[in-house]
């Protein structure tokens, strides 16, 4: 074991079924009922589901039609993002009472580094418990939390005792915790990758840890190196209060499938205009334009082009998107188009890991 890795006290706070919980809080008649935030029509998609709905298999990102089929009694409500943002700001204000090192991931979750905190409390676990209690008393919602030595383990731990619970993984417990973990529980390993790992006999963290870095890189590309480190408890990313935006995008789902490129071009013009507006508002520009295409059979395709200069102008974005549209023939009618700009002029290169390290274990470090 190496003792040269910093031990931090990281909390990952994750609100429980946030959008759905806000709707149930604002409308008591919805409490205890299966609820989906999103559209119920043929083009509708579930943005969030209450725990009552999840019992039937209703999850975010599935179609409204499928959700209704899984749960005939499902109640649909339209999302109110202004309200969710309002509530999110109240929750973040509570976070800042404890530390300025707050890294929001979305409206409903954030990392907090409480290694040094405003309360002078040496116990990250007690801080997490106090934060969750305050969120419930002051906002009216429940939250779950994970507490550990780095962001990755804290993120995994926050899902361990959901809803309305928390899990602390102490420094001396990290390796055992990760080794026993089902590979599907590793944050960043999706369904497709998990299936591939299963086929190669990798079912748990211990199975993953038995593979060499060369093997993982050969079979899982660049992500393989990351898997090699995280299963050893190594994740050096700091909590970044001002997260650097990696990309900026806009997309549209259409009421009817588009089969004519003429109609697609018309839609792309409006999308490019929206992207340009957002770039202007954020005062950023980018080099890589990506066209996102979702076909009527839900197959997803992306086409990208990197320019030698930064762009933010609608005309240039649209022209590049058109070029990508005509890059190859459409394989089916289209239900969604999107344009994103990445490789932004706000990005900084991350420092590479230059030395293999084992997680540091300091038993006297109080969690």
From TrEMBL:
Record text on cofactor binding: Binds 2 magnesium ions per subunit.
Broad class of the protein's primary localization: cytoplasm
Pfam families to which the protein is assigned, alphabetical: IMS (PF00817), IMS_C (PF11799), IMS_HHH (PF11798)
EC top class, as a word: transferase
GO molecular function, one term: DNA-directed DNA polymerase activity
SUPFAM superfamilies given in the database record: DNA/RNA polymerases, Lesion bypass DNA polymerase (Y-family), little finger domain
Domain UmuC: 10-190
Protein residues bound to Mg(2+): 14, 108
Active site feature: 109
Positions bearing the site annotation: Substrate discrimination: 19
Protein localization: Cytoplasm
GO cellular component terms, A-Z: cytosol
InterPro entries assigned to the protein according to its UniProt record, in alphabetical order: DNA/RNA_pol_sf, DNA_pol_Y-fam_lit_finger_sf, DNA_pol_Y-fam_little_finger, DNA_polymerase-Y, DNApol_IV, PolY_HhH_motif, Rev_trsase/Diguanyl_cyclase, UmuC
Catalytic activity: DNA(n) + a 2'-deoxyribonucleoside 5'-triphosphate = DNA(n+1) + diphosphate
Record keywords, A-Z: Cytoplasm, DNA damage, DNA repair, DNA replication, DNA-binding, DNA-directed DNA polymerase, Magnesium, Metal-binding, Mutator protein, Nucleotidyltransferase, Transferase
Enzyme Commission number, as recorded: 2.7.7.7
Keyword Transferase part of the UniProt annotation: yes
GO biological process entries: DNA repair; DNA-templated DNA replication; error-prone translesion synthesis; SOS response
Cofactor or coenzyme needed: Mg(2+)
Xref: HAMAP family: DNApol_IV (MF_01113)
Family note: Belongs to the DNA polymerase type-Y family.
Function noted in UniProt: Poorly processive, error-prone DNA polymerase involved in untargeted mutagenesis. Copies undamaged DNA at stalled replication forks, which arise in vivo from mismatched or misaligned primer ends. These misaligned primers can be extended by PolIV. Exhibits no 3'-5' exonuclease (proofreading) activity. May be involved in translesional synthesis, in conjunction with the beta clamp from PolIII.
Subunit record text: Monomer.
Entries under NCBIfam families matching the protein: PRK02406.1, PRK14133.1
Name the record gives this protein: DNA polymerase IV
Organism: Olleya aquimaris
């Amino acid at each position: 074991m190496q003792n040269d890795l910093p031990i931090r006290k990281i909390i990952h706070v994750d609100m429980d079924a946030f959008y759905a919980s806000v709707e149930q809080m604002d409308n008591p008649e919805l409490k205890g009922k299966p609820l989906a935030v999103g559209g119920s029509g043929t083009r509708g998609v579930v943005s969030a589901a209450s725990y009552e709905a999840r019992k039937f298999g209703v999850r975010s990102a599935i179609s409204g039609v499928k959700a209704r089929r899984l749960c005939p009694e499902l109640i649909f409500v339209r999302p109110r993002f202004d309200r969710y943002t309002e509530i999110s700001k109240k929750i973040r204000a509570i976070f800042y009472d404890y530390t300025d090192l707050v890294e929001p991931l979305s409206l409903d979750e954030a990392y907090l580094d409480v290694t040094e905190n405003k309360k002078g409390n040496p116990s990250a676990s007690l801080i997490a418990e106090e934060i969750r209690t305050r969120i419930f008393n002051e906002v009216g919602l429940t939250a779950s939390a994970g507490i550990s030595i780095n962001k990755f383990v804290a993120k995994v731990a926050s899902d361990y005792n959901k809803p309305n619970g928390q899990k602390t993984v102490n420094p001396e417990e990290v390796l055992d915790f990760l080794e026993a973990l089902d590979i599907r529980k590793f944050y960043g390993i999706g369904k497709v990758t998990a299936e591939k790992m299963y086929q190669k006999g990798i079912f748990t963290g211990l199975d993953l840890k038995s593979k060499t870095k060369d093997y993982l890189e050969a079979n899982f590309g660049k992500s393989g190196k990351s898997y090699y480190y995280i299963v050893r408890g190594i994740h050096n990313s700091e909590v970044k209060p001002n997260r650097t935006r990696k990309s900026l995008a806009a997309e549209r789902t259409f009421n009817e499938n588009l089969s004519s490129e003429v109609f697609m071009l018309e839609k792309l013009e409006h999308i490019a205009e929206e992207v340009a507006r957002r770039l202007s508002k954020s005062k950023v520009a980018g080099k890589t334009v990506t066209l996102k295409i979702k076909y009527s059979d839900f197959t997803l395709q992306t086409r990208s082009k990197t320019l030698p200069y930064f762009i933010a102008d609608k005309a240039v974005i649209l022209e590049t998107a058109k070029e990508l549209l005509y890059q190859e023939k459409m394989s089916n009618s289209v239900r969604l188009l999107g344009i994103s700009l990445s490789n932004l002029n706000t990005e900084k290169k991350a420092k590479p890991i230059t030395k293999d390290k084992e997680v540091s274990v300091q038993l006297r470090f109080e969690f």
